[in-house]
Design brief:
This protein has helices spanning about 5-15, 20-30, 35-45, 50-70, 70-75, 80-90, 95-105, 110-125, 130-145, 150-160, 165-180, 185-200, 205-215. By secondary structure, the protein is mainly alpha-helical. Helix 3 packs antiparallel against helix 4 (about 50-70) and helix 6 packs parallel to helix 8.
Amino acid sequence: MPPSMKDLAYDYLIGGNYHEAAALYEQAIDHRPEIVAYYWYLGLSLLLQGQLEEAEMIWAMALAETESDPKEQLRSGDKDLIEVWRIILEVCPSNEHAIDFLIASIDLVQDRLVLADLLIAKTAELIGILPTVSSLQYLELCHQLQPENLTILFNLADLYRLSGKYLESATSAAKILKSPHNLVDRVIANFLITSALIKAGGQWQQANAAYQLSLIHI
């Protein structure tokens, strides 16, 4: 795709002219089918038009190609994939098909630091706005990128608790104790573990052990 056409397709996409953007990305794929980045953008253009099945098919094709051929990952356009993530987070963060794509494509992103900065900042904005299920999915992606981030672990434990996933809440809180933390973090984590295990039922022994541990460190 000539630079001028690539810029035009991107401008269409950002400007909400999704049909025109999709048409240009289809042309680009016809000419250069080996450039996986075009598939990322085409899938997004179709998704934003409500063509969910078509978008999933395009993305699935590209994901299958990159996962089966490591060299293809290097040609998949890291900057472009991160840009597709950015657009999804800005334009349609609650779309379940878009979230499924993020989950499926996270391991293809080479620049984990840039992606983590983008995802964690946006997730912080979205918590409390999106449904709990979607917020949890984003937090789980954040945790995948930064497994020892205490803010993410505390938010995960809290949202799991609010959604009735008490054992998951206890597990997330327990991870805090295995990460670098201070006394306040330890006390809160043990409280979360105790509360979650009691609400889970049938976990009295583990709950009491966690409670006694929290008393020791107060």
